Amino acid sequence: MQHQLLIGYDDRHTFLNRLSGSTKLLSFVGLSVIGMMTFDTRYLLGIMVFSLILFRFSKIKYRDVSFVMSVIIGFSVLNLVMVYVFAPHYGVDIYGTEHLLLGSSNHYFNLTTEQLFYEFNLLLKYTFAVPLALIFLMTTNPSEFAASLNKIGISYRISYSVAIALRYIPDVQSDYRTISLAQQARGFEISKKAKFMTRVKGGIQIMLPLIFSSLDRIEVISQAMELRRFGKGKKRTWYMAQKFKRNDYLALLVVALLILLGIALFKVNGGRFWNPFK
Amino acid sequence: MQNQQSNSIRTVVATGIGAAVIFVLMKFVAIPTGIPNTQVNVSIGFLALLGAIFGPVAAGLAVFIGHALNDFVTYGSPWWTWVIVDGLIGVAFGLAKNRLKIANGALSTSKLVWFNIYQVVVNFVGWVLLAPTGDIIIYHEPATKVYVQGVTTWIIDSISVAIIGTILLVLYSRTRTQRGSLKKER
Amino acid sequence: MTAPIISFKDFSFQYNSQTEPTLRHINLDIYPGEKVLIAGPSGSGKSTLGRCLNGLIPQSYPGKVAGTAMVAGKEVTKSSIFDLSMNVGTVLQDPDSQFVGLTVVEDMAFSLENDQQSQDEMQKATAKWATTLDLKDLLTHRPQELSGGQKQRVSMAGVLIDNSKILLFDEPLASLDPASGKASMALIDHLTHTQDLTVVIIEHRIEDVLQQPIDRLIVMQDGAIVADDKPEAILRQSLMAQLGLREPLYLSALKLAGVDLDTCQHIDSLANLQVPDLTDQLQRWTAGVTLKAPVQHPDPLLTIDHLTFGYDPKAPIINDLSTTLNRGEMVSLVGQNGTGKSTLSNLITGFLTPQQGHMTFNGQPLEHQSVKERADQIGYILQDPNQMISKTLIYDEVAAGLVLRGVDPDTIEQRVYDVLKVCGLYEFRHWPISALSFGQKKRVTIAAILVLEPAMLILDEPTAGQDLQHYTEMMGFLTKINHEKDMTIMLITHDMHLMLEYTDRTIVLGSGNILMDAAPADVLTNDTIIDQASLAKTSLYSLAAAHAINPTEFVAKFVQAEREAR
After folding, report:
1. Cα C304 from Cα C302, distance rounded (Å)
2. Does B38 lie at the interface with A, CB-CB under 8 angstroms?
3. Fewest CB atoms less than 10 Å from the CB: which of B72, C276, C350, C524?
4. Nearest C-alpha of chain B: how many angstroms from C69?
């Protein structure tokens, strides 16, 4: 945590590393969108298995991502429990049948196969994109990220904003640490020891140096960039941009086929849901 | 005041640095409210200031990027509906720039009152109307659950902006020096 | 004679936010191939003049302009920053803000990317300049992994890559340790000759810049040029102190020894200095001064015992370090960047927790004291004032610590005003802090800690960015509280002059431990330590060595004489 802020990019020498950032970005976005739209369990499971296999190929070590995994699990469980608490019959509404497992139909908290199945689908939707996102983050050189955004059609100014965010997050973070300690030394307090308003005031006093020094920074960086002609043309080139190679086209083709399959399933299922109970 | 080109570069940098600050605030600054598992949303207070200084484009994009990056790092994958709603709220806060005119010096009480009514409405539209609707369409989650989440977020964020945002706006506007106003006092 | 490449004619400028012009009737010609140093106290307008060269004025800083300013054949007020940037490369004071790329090579290529050059062209250009500036092994490094000197070389590469003929440096020495500063000056000199550059350096540390030859020294005061001549001529007139600038040390030594400056030749460069009978005069002076016994500080205040700390326990930054600071001492802590000077202070203040060892302060163990409890006794002032300032008005900022400690309002006002007067900020007391210069902000943060009257102060680079007058005032003030209140003061510094003239004891950190702990004069005359800790030999040392005088003795006597004169 001290040195690595964003989940660590590393060149692990796999074909995933060699793909251009634009390819990985497009694939991730494409598969995320189709996965968010569909409720076809078979399709979601398929994508999940596909991304887990890719994850295996990426040579990312589990312990590098174990922290994220535990957060995801916590997040998913919390949401699934909330869905159950607020709407224990939602699955029945969606699928139109009721197979009771526990309790009877007139109990508020009963358990049906439909509800379990629906929540299983939700779980898949919460998690299917995670391996893809991790692959994308951990095999794409942050330096190439902005160039990739620009390549897929986002303006270079916005793309460069993302690059600036990535460049300065470590600096802002270490600034925050230093400032926070120095302010606590002066007597500002944000922990639960203090009253609510004292905490908020303390928090603001800690934030202020961070915010004001960041605002100053915006001015100086803008000048530095202007002195080096940022924004001169309608386009700009990127030192780190990668050209598309054969594998990039192949990968995009595979992803396009997967997306088409997902769309085809909408037709087959006559909607977003695949209903095994009919 | 400044020329067009400098302003457009400033917007780019403000977006990037704004996103970095929002990322760090979301990740590290937790002021407990006293209710378990709920924290004051410090980053949205900062967003109000960012919008008032740099306008809708910088604020909207900054929170979109900052929130998306934070989700990537924390949850592996962004929760897109909320990220987009946050971005729209950033845009809405940025639209207040011309009315607040924060660069010209201290803010009047009436402007602050107006801004706070405005932000409560904006947060309402964002968290009670848009975000739950998005969750229902995309994730097909039950309405009761997402509306409870939306209303909770609306309340917390409105209060966060009302306290932190307002204080930041006031403090920032006080630092703006009026043209030719500074003289040494002996 | 060739036409000037930079030419100001009766040029004046007033910022929109100010009531008075910052530049008044500037007349200045700089010719191609010249290397010019613009010096002056802070607020003299030297940085403003720099901004006129690259077009930031009037493009980014609007204001009233009168007269004309031509740079490389273009009228500044009518050219865009982009146009001027092809001719003027600017290396800003803050290397972190200038370094916008994620890695070294991207930052070098940044302006070429904006010019939409192809990857091939960019690779050729970056390879060429990486060789020239010795950056080849660092190309994929992130800025967070570089030292100050390396970042500055990247900044230079990033502007030289445009093949601009004018290079502008804004306080290039501000964030460098002495050894890097020396290397940087040598590199600039080398580039000036090999790349046919016209170089303008804005800096107030004249002696450090003069380590390499300078063609012209321009001194500014209150927005006007008050001296514009060869350095030798200006130094000879002994105007430096009067103009608010620090005179080179060797020059002060010559004066102390009673040498008549009119008999000297090449007074701007110690290496070429020629004075009849100098050896004789210096030896006579040295023999005539008796060293007094140093003041003893027998009463221990902070004891550090076998302290060990490292983010990665296998590579400790502080490794089994033990030392004692005594009450009333004025100590300087020096060493290369990244050797743990700040880490050590963070351990003392409780910002970091050591893996091993313990500390006692005033006889009490520090382990169980919180950051805040320690802060009541040990004040720590960060290097960057922007990281400490949390109020918008100067008065509120200085009063904040007292308010949080529940002191009554009348006492607060009295104490705040007192400390503001001492720090030279009284006349600004109702200003917003945002309107202050860097050096002034620094004084605000020092005032905000001093007002709490701690028993010990740790200051990180207390005089960075301050001109001579404020430097002298600040150090005079610290010396005063050190004597009167018997306050222990530890200064973390790169400034050899400060360490020599104001501290009684120097602790040199290196590879996690103390390399040397001795009187400053001993440290600065020890070749091995100077090398290991990236310090720099002062000109006093070279002067003494060249004239067969024991350098340690000479330096110690010089310091004693200077202090007595103060």
Report:
1. 7
2. no
3. C276
4. 20
pTM of the model as a whole: 0.90
C431 neighbourhood in chain B, CB within 8 Å: 182
Pick the CATH number of C300-534 from 3.40.190.10, 3.40.50.300, 3.40.1110.10, 3.30.1360.130: 3.40.50.300
**A198 and A62, same structural domain?**
no
Closest CB to B174: pick one of C18, C19, C432. C432
Residue B102 DSSP symbol: G
Over the stretch C157-166, which tens digit does the pLDDT of each residue have? 999 999 889 9
Q: Does A215 touch chain B (CB under 8 A)?
A: yes
User: Which chains pack against A, by 3+ Cβ pairs within 8 A?
Assistant: B, C
Which one, of B95, B6, B107, lies nearest residue B47 by Cα? Answer: B95
Predicted confidence (pLDDT) per residue in C193-227, tens digit:
998 899 999 998 888 899 899 999 999 988 999 99
Q: Where in the sequence is the domain holding A51, given as residue range(s)?
A: 15-141+241-278
Output the six-digit token pair for B20.
């970095």
Q: Tell me, which fold does domain C6-243 have in CATH?
A: Rossmann fold (3.40.50)
Q: To the nearest whole number, what is the mean pLDDT of chain C?
A: 89
pLDDT mean across residues, chain A: 86
Q: Which residues in chain A are closer than 8 Å to B74, comparing Cβ atoms?
A: 68, 71
* Distance, CA of C250 to CA of C196 (rounded, Å): 31
> Does pLDDT of A5 surpass 60?
no
Task: Examine the domain organization and report whether A32 and A56 are in the same domain.
Answer: yes
- Give chains near C: 3+ CB pairs under 8 A: A, B
Q: Are residues A49 and A22 in the same domain?
A: yes
CB contacts, 8 Å: B25 with chain A = 207
Q: Where are the domains of chain B?
A: 11-175
Write down the domain spans for chain C.
6-243, 248-288+536-566, 300-534
Calpha distance A167→C293 (Å, rounded): 54
C531 neighbors C213 (Cβ within 8 angstroms): no
Tell me what the mean pLDDT of segment C506-533 comes to.
Answer: 91
Q: Which of A125, A168, A204 sits opposite B17 (nearest CB)?
A: A168
Q: Distance (Å, rounded) from C-alpha B38 to C-alpha A71?
A: 16
> In this structure, which amino acid lies at residue C196?
D
Give me the residues of B, 127-186, that contact C with CB < 8 A. Answer: 171-172, 174-186
> Which fold, B11-175?
Arp2/3 complex 21 kDa subunit ARPC3 (1.10.1760)
d(CA C134, CA C98): 19
Categorize the per-residue pLDDT at C101 as very low, low, confident or very high, splitting at 50, 70 and 90.
very high
**Is C542 part of the contact surface with chain A (CB cutoff 8 Å)?**
no
Asked if this assembly's ipTM is beyond 0.90, the reply is no
Whether A8 is covered by a domain: the verdict is no
Q: What percent of chain A is predicted at pLDDT more than 90? A: 28
